[in-house]
Amino acid sequence: MKNTLLIICLFAFTWGGVAQGNSSIAVANPNVEGLYATPEMCAKMIRLELSKLNKYSVYDKFDMQDVYDSNEAYKTSCLSKTCLVEFGQKLGANYMMTGSFDLLGNKIVITLKMIDVANNSVYKSGLKEFTNQEKELQRMVEVLLTEMLDIPVNKELSDRLKFDNDIITKANVGKVSNAGPRVGVGVMTGAFYEYANRSKSQGGLDIFPAVSMIGYQLEAQYVGTDNFSALAEFILNVNGLEQGKFIPTLSILNGFRFGDSAWEFAFGPGFTLTKTSMGRFVDGDYQTQREYQDYWEGEFNPNSGESYNSHMNNPDYLDIMNTMEETLDDRADVKGAFMFVMAFGRTFRSGALNIPVNIFYSSRGGGGIAGINIGFNVTKKKTTMMSGL
Predict the structure, then answer these.
(1) Residue 279: C-alpha distances to residues 194, 195, 294 (Å)
(2) What is the value of pTM for the model shown?
(3) 103 has pLDDT over 50
């Protein structure tokens, strides 16, 4: 008796599997809102993914054309269970499938339902939220279908596509750009403070050791979520115009912005134009290497019988020359110089108006400039990192 029951169960299981394997299914055009994909394209993706599963005999659009020709509504608006059952009966299909593809904010929501035509009932249904990566619609359909039909899901693919706020490696998340004008003031420190106060006759700027800053910031987000952004920032400034000076700087920073309050930390190299000479300070006065050489050679007595270049072997001359170092000198030729910039700040928001406020320090050659700058920009709309795709 037990053997008989076992044989019956095995037969029933095998017959059921074969029956399902031979079951036919057709896909009606789903409803699509907010996406560039058309209902026909989305239906084609569903048919393709169903065919890959090798569980059903899938009708293609040519198998369905005669029914479409008889009633255009089956092609454009057959979304209800009643319509799908009628559609399936005309096709002779065991199952019908359709659903909806909707763009809601910064996520794509896909719903699918599978109708059992003979029993006039919903056989399977599924809903899933994905990140706004429209070019991955077919993979989204793959994930949802496998979940609906109780097939093992590719977890890595599902995690990459699902909508959440935690995974920062997603390629498509909302962002707000803080690019815009910047104004500020910087106070010179160390060697720059001395350079600003030094007289023009000694190669100094002879200005108050604080300068205005007028510039513009460009930025590009390369990774992020609603709670974190990593940015490349490009800041061009012109300093000291109010004191008759033109001191340009270009900073290229790696920035990190955190939370709804938009706290930010940034650091990176900067480039500027400078003037320096080799020299030393004597009793508070700056003397260049050229000036010292001219002085020494002016003191040379040609009647002494010494060689004109004998001072090159004089210990006093050599000691002084060896202690000279590169120093800021406004009389020298212009050349490029690098610096290191650090900044910390926060963006204040009022409606569409963003007001970034940052304190910063740029360091170079024994001194630097510390200060604060303020900017503003108006957010016209939120964009996505892959909006160009």
Answers:
(1) 14, 13, 13
(2) 0.49
(3) yes
Which residue, 137, 161, 185, sits at the end of a domain?
161
Question: In residues, how long is the chain?
Answer: 389
Q: Spell 45-74 as b/e; 16+ CB within 10 A means b.
A: bbbebbeeeebbbbbeeeebeebbeeeeeb
For residue 223, what is the domain's CATH number? 2.40.160.20
Question: Do 90 and 214 sit in the same domain of this protein?
Answer: no
Same domain, 189 and 336: yes
CB 96: neighbour CB atoms within 10 A?
27
pLDDT-based confidence at residue 383 (cuts at 50, 70, 90): very low
- Whether residue 95 lies inside any domain: the answer is yes
Q: Tell me, yes or no, whether 26 and 147 share the same domain.
A: yes
Say which range, 84-93, 118-127, 169-178, 349-358, has the weakest mean pLDDT. Answer: 169-178
Residues 366 and 269 in one domain: yes
Quote the crossing angle between the two packed helices 289-298 and 315-323, to the nearest 10°.
160
φ, ψ of residue 333 in degrees (nearest 5): -75, 155
CB 102 within 8 A of CB 33: yes
Q: Residue 250 and residue 216: Cα distance in Å, rounded?
A: 10
The DSSP result for 110-141, as a single string, is: EEEEEEETTTTEEEEEEEEEEES-GGGHHHHH
CA diameter of the chain: 137
Confirm if 153 and 140 have CB atoms less than 8 A apart.
no
- Locate tokens 């023009």: which residue? 200
Same domain as 136, residue 44: yes
Tens of pLDDT, residue by residue over 176-228, are: 677 889 999 999 998 889 888 888 888 888 899 999 999 999 988 887 766 78
Give the C-alpha separation, 222 to 235, whole Å.
17
